[in-house]
Amino acid sequence: MALLEQGRAAEAAPFLKESARLAPKNAQYWKALGVAFASMNELRDAVEPFRQACALDPRLLDACYYYGRNLYGTDKYEEALAPLEKALAVDPVKGRAEAAIGQCLHALGRNEAAEKRFQSAVARHDRAEQMARLAFGQFLVRQGRAAEAVDVLKPAQRPESHDASYELGLAYCQAGELEEAAAALQGAVRLSPRKAATRLLLAKVYRRLGRVSEAESEELAAVTIGLPEQQ
């Protein structure tokens, strides 16, 4: 556990595997093993440890939530719903599980049900509100409802984060509010200057505003960084 807490997931994984083998009914060991795999971005390897943890102790903090999120991350949207519903029932911060359910429903094309889940997650006003608003805002942008997304995303700007500023900038851009888009994306670049995709979107906004030299500067920065990263 200490190695995992120190961010040394690759070193921790063999010890956690052995711990889970010796104590297969210990949900905490299984959850920790899943976290180790997920930390190394080995999402498919993390599925079974998280499944075991959720099955052994559905009330263990994060066990079912991590299982559901990991299934979502491996494109198993329908399978993710059941563990996320379990997480919603026991998690003291319910907004994150409900927003995750909304994301699964959206991925399954069940948009009306997804929207209700996002609205409910935001309305909880718990510690996951920023995350819920970002997820709902992304959903609205993808539905072509950028103006509504702006209203959802504006209250999600505290605490500051790259993702919050980026999503607001994207919504403003799609809503045609280019000056506001530029301001939000400038904030995103300030917070994470090595996100090439953010710089390219800002360059696009600058070009639409006729600010060619600034656009060229952002494009050069993006090329220097490399290919656009996944947002």
From TrEMBL:
SUPFAM superfamilies: TPR-like (SSF48452). Keywords: TPR repeat. PROSITE patterns: TPR (PS50005). It holds the Pfam family TPR_11. InterPro entries: TPR-like_helical_dom_sf (IPR011990), TPR_rpt (IPR019734). It comes from the Bacteria. TPR repeats lie at residues 27-60, 61-94, 162-195. This is Tetratricopeptide repeat protein.
